[in-house]
Amino acid sequence: MTKPTFPAASILGYPRIGPNRELKKALEAHWANRTDEATLHAAARELQQANLAKLTELGLGATDASLPGDFAYYDQVLDATVALSALPTRFADLAAADGTVNTAASFVLARGDESRAPLEMTKWFDTNYHYLVPEIGENTPIAANAKPLVESFKAHAANGSTIRPTLVGPITYLLLAKAEDGAAEGFDPLTRIDEVVAAYAQILTELAAAGAPWVQIDEPALVTDRGAELAVPGALAESVYAKLAAATERPALFVTFGYGTAGDVARPGATQGLLARAGVEAVHADLVRGLAPKAEFLGDLAGATLVAGVVNSRNIWRNNLAESLVILKTLRTEVEKSNGTIAVGTATSLQHVPHDVALENNLPAHLPEWLAFANQKVAEVITLAKGLAQGESAIAAELSAAETAINHRAAFAGTTVAAVRDRLAALTDADFSRSAADVREAAQEAALNLPVLPTTTIGSFPQTGEVRTARAAHRNGSIDDAAYEGFLKAEIARVVELQERLGLDVLVHGEPERNDMVQYFAENFDGFTETTNGWVQSYGSRATRPSILWGDVSRPAAFTVPWISYAASLTNKPFKGMLTGPVTILAWSFIRDDQPLATSANQVALALRDEIADLQDAGISIIQVDEPALRELLPLRKADQADYLKWSVDSFRLSTAGAVDATQIHTHLCYSEFGEIIDAIDALDADVTSIEAARSRMEVTADLTEFGYSRGIGPGVYDIHSPRVPSTEEVAELIEIALASLPAKQLWINPDCGLKTRGYAETEASLANLVEATLAARATIGANTGANA
C-alpha cells in the first residue's frame, strides 16, 4: 500500500459530551422514552459535525485525517466490545441475527435491565473517566462488527470531513477485561488475542473499503507495568502489530500510548521504533507524563511519523510554548536520526478537559489568560507545528502572549500566601495521628450504641428538578437568600423523615445545598474558582464540572456546619456529617502544576481539619471524609506508587487526626481496583470505610479478609450507577457473601455510592429493600439489634 502522510498537527480525541452537554440531553431523553433511536442518532450526528466544523475552523484540516473520529455514545471501551460483538453470556440474547451488537443492546450492557446487572465500571487509568469493563471467557463470541465505524466515517465524509476512526487497541482491550463469570479458574482474557486481532484486521479492511486513509488505535495499557512487558522486542505487541500491518488492503495505522511511557522505562522510546519496524505508519509519545524517546532507543523508524504529545490534555493551564518548542526541536533531531518524521499532538485525548474558555463569563479577571481548554489546546498544537516547521519568528506573537500569561500567574497575589505556607511548615508528626483504633472503638461504641450491621447511605440523596431549579433561581436572583434557605431546610427535613421512615440507622442530610461534592468545597475555600460551563464527561451521560485550584488554599469560615447541625436537630438517631477528602478534591479539580501535589493536598487537608473541628463542636459525632479518588491518582508504574501513597494517606490523616476518640471517622471509596491499595486503605486509619462492591459481587471482601482488615467496613450492596432497583433477595445475597468473609461486628450495610444521580422512586424502593434484607440478616445471625434498630 502507498503510505499516506500523517498531518503535521493533530489531536488524539475531542470532548464528546458537547459544549452545552448536548449528548447528555439526547441520551437521557432517549432513555426516558421521550425520543426514538433515530432522533438520538440524528442529535449525535449533529453534535459530531458541529465539533468537526469547530476543529476545522481552528485550523485542523478537513480532509487530511487530522480530525479525530473518537465519538462514543457512552464509552470507548464499550464501543470496542460492540466492534468485537463480545457479549457476555448473560447478554447473549441481545445479539442480532448476524451476531452483531446495536446501539440499543449496548445501552443494556451499560445500564442493565430489570433482570441483569450491567457491566462493571471502573476508572480509566489514573483519570476520573469511567469505562465499562469487558467480560471475556473461553467461549465469549468474538467477531468483527465494523458497521458503526464505517457508517460514521461515510456520514462525515459526505459532509466534507475525513475523520480518523478510533478504536481501543486489542492489547489494551484484553488487559482491561475481566474473566467472565463461569470461566475456568485463572483464565486470562489475553489468551483470546489471536481472535481479537483477526477481528480488528477485518474491521481495518472494511474501513479501507469505505475510504478511510488512517485509523487510530489507542494502546494506553502499554504504559502500565504489565503492558510494558508486552511492548519489548519479541513480545506480544510486536507480533500483534506485524499481523495488523501485514494486510495489503488497510488504512495507515496510528498507534497511541497516552498516560505515560510505553514499554520498558529503562529504554524510553523503544516501543515506538518497535511498532514502526513492524509496519505501523505513525506512533505516539506522551511527552507530558512520559519520557521523550531518543534515537539510540528508537532504532530505525522506517519512515514512520512520531507524533509528539507535547500539549497537556489532562489539565487546563496554558502551554509554555517556548519550552515545548525546545522539546520538539530536540526530539526532531532524534527522530530524523532514526529515519522518521515528526508531528505535533496532544498527550492524550482532549476528552479530559472542557470545550472552550470562551464559554466562561464569570471567571475572576486574572484567570482566563492563564487557561487553555480543548479549543485553545488545538490552537496550541497548530501553533507549535507551525513554529517547528517555520521557526520561532513565525509564532512570535503567540510566544510572547504565552510568556506574559505565565509570568503574570507566578507573580499574582494569592498564588503564594505566607500564612498558609507558615502553617504547613509548623506541622509535626503528632498532627498526622489519632489514638489507637481499639481505644477509639470503645469510645465510639459507648457514644453511638449502634446495632449490628448498621445501615446508612453514602451521603447525597437525589438532586431533583426542583432542587436544581431552586439553585438556579437563587443564582440568578429570582429568589432571595431567605427563600432559598427555607427551600433547602424543607428538602433536608424531607430527606431526614424519609430515612427515619425507612428505618436507616445512621442518617445524613442529603446535601441539597451542594451542586457537586468537590465544587461545593471549592466555592468555600480560598485558592479555588469554579467554572460555569467547564463540563467534562465522567461516564455515559454524566459530566462533572471540575473546579480550578490556582492558589494557596485556606478555609475562611465554617460552611457545612449550619446545614448538618439543622438536619441533626430533626432526629434522635446518630447523624453523619459529610466532607470531601483532600485527594478527591485534587483529583476532581484542575490543579496547579507549579508545586508538588503533596503541598496542595496538605493545604486542603488543613482546611478540612478546621471544618471537622467545627462539626465536632456542633455535636456531630460521625463524620465521613470521602476519598473515592484515592485509587484514581495511583501512578501506573509500581516504582512510582510508594511516594504517592505516602503523601495521599498523610493528607487524609492530617485532615482527620484532630478528631477526638468518640468521633467516628468514616471514609468512602468507589469504582477502583481496591486490592492494589489495601495497605493504603488500612493506613488511612478511618474507623469505618464504605466501598463499592455491588457490581463486582463483593470481590473486595476476599482482599480484606486476606489482608486481615480489622476496622469497620461497608461493602456496597446497591449499585447506584444503574437505574434498576435491586430486590431484597439480591441485597440479602450480597450481605451473605460479605458475612462469609468478614465478622458481622465489622460490617456496615450501605449503597455503593451517593444517590445524587438517582430518582426518589427507585431510591426509596432500593433502600427499603436494603433495610429489609439487613433486618433478615440480623435475625439470621441472632444478634442484638440494639436500641436504634
List the helices and strands and how they pair.
Elements: H1 22-31, H2 37-58, E1 67-69, H3 76-84, H4 103-111, E2 121-123, E3 130-132, E4 135-136, H5 147-158, E5 163-168, H6 170-176, E6 178-179, H7 193-210, E7 214-218, H8 225-229, H9 236-246, E8 252-256, H10 270-278, E9 282-286, H11 295-298, E10 305-311, H12 321-337, E11 341-346, H13 374-390, H14 396-411, H15 418-425, H16 437-448, H17 465-475, H18 481-502, H19 519-524, E12 526-529, E13 536-539, E14 542-544, E15 547-554, H20 561-568, E16 576-580, H21 582-587, E17 589-590, H22 597-617, E18 622-626, H23 641-656, E19 664-669, H24 678-683, E20 688-691, H25 699-707, E21 712-715, H26 728-741, H27 760-781
Parallel strand pairs: 1-5, 4-6, 5-7, 7-8, 8-9, 9-10, 10-11, 15-17, 16-18, 18-19, 19-20, 20-21
Antiparallel strand pairs: 2-3, 12-15, 13-14
Helix count equals: 27
Q: Percent range for helical residues?
A: 40-55%
Q: Mean of the pLDDT scores?
A: 95
Strand order of the largest sheet: 1-5-7-8-9-10-11
Please tell me how large the radius of gyration is.
Answer: 26 Å
Coarse structural class:
alpha/beta
Largest sheet: number of strands, sense, barrel closure: 7 strands, parallel
- Uncertain residue ranges: 783-789
Strand content bin: 5-15%
What is the general shape?
A: globular
Number of strands: 21
Distance between the termini: 73 Å
